[in-house]
Amino acid sequence: MASADDGSSSGITDTASDSDDTSDQEAVRSKSDHQQEKACRYYNSGYCRDGKNCRFLHYCKYALKGTCTKGTNCEFTHPQGRKAVLGGNQKTERKHTSGGVEAGNKTAATTLTDGRFYQWQLKYKNDWKDVINDHIIEAQFSLPHIRGIKLYNTPYGVVNIDFKKMRVYGKRLKVRRLDDGKTTWLWYCNIGHKWVKYDGKDSKGNPIPAKSSDIEQKFQANPMGSFIFIIGTDTLEIQYNAMQQVSTRKKRKVTRRPMYRQPQARATAAGGISPPNHFIYSQAQTPQWQYKGNHGKWRVFKKTGVCSTSSDDIEKEYQQNPSGSMIFTIQGQTYKLDFGTMTQMNLSTTHSREVRRVLS
């Protein structure tokens, strides 16, 4: 798996990071009452390049009319509170928001899993198939700075999944994440080019007066609404529609990602996508951890008399918790390696270096 910071493409899976601040982000275009009730024809055709800035609704056009016959199997988002036609009878559709809430896919309605925590699936024509070992996708999706992932050696060739738009680039495929309805969703804000969890502390060490659980509860009630909280004399608003935090002085990106859960043991599902070596590391494809040294040169972690950890040690910790961290020492100095931000920090000097995970 390539690093989240350099966009390299070696290995079985590649991930792309997203850590840009949006103080100069373009404001979302205003919508007239007429436009708010009109579905985007490009979204309903499969892709709208305007994303979150689109003036029209990114909803199933038939759901808006109350005539969608696909219900929870519909590949397009259905607005909450509307009616969907199922077999000729009017029925309120059950929703489970599941990722991809940015860039126009505001509610990302999905069906329930078959009992697993989550199920990542790819669709070709009318056939949805499970992605085997999808916990690797889930682990990357749980990291706020990861924009997407590339899957290699699939029946469809290289599959490039965009987490923000929940779509596959360059292929006639669709992607979705099914949810068991029990996922703990975490909310993050991009501050100083780093994703900071709302449950954490601000730059001055003060607790942030907004919790992911509260933000999520209000989002579930109204994915097109907002969450307002106060820090000091500033009133801040998290706008779900634009996925941004707005104050009188600045706009920042926000994102919503699941808390990672270890996959449940199960037999390979019949008909699932399991091509040769799909998500299986061969001896020539061992994940390698590197840090960015002086002059921008990447160096491999090696356990020596100077450093207390190795690349293999780090990989073992990462597999246990891809969004966690670990402590190690170099020349008697204590360092923290954060998998979420892909950095190592000297706990005495607070100096940080970038780290990455690549396939050798």
Descriptive report:
The chain is globular and about 70 Å long. It has a six-stranded antiparallel beta sheet, covered by helices on one side. The protein has helices at residues 33-36, 41-45, 61-65, 135-141, 212-221, 311-320; strands spanning 13-17, 83-86, 89-92, 118-124, 127-130, 146-154, 157-162, 167-169, 173-179, 185-191, 194-197, 226-231, 234-239, 244-246, 251-258, 287-292, 298-300, 325-330, 333-338, 343-346, 352-359. The chain starts with 12 loop residues before the first strand and ends with a strand. It is mainly β. The longest helix is centred in the middle third of the chain and has 10 residues, at 212-221.
Brief characterization of the structure:
11% of the residues lie in helices and 32% in strands.
Q: What is the percentage of strand-forming residues?
A: 25-35%
Spatial shape: globular
The CA-CA distance between the termini, in Å, is: 9 Å
Helical content class: 10-25%
Please outline the major beta sheet. 6 strands, antiparallel
Mean pLDDT comes to 75
Structural class: mainly beta
Order of helices and strands: EHHHEEEEHEEEEEEHEEEEEEHEEEE
User: Low-confidence stretches at least 5 residues in length (pLDDT < 50)?
Assistant: 1-13, 19-36, 81-97, 99-109, 274-285
Strand order of the largest sheet: 11-10-15-14-13-12
What's the total count of β strands? 21
Number of H- or I-type helical stretches: 6
Rg, rounded, reads: 21 Å
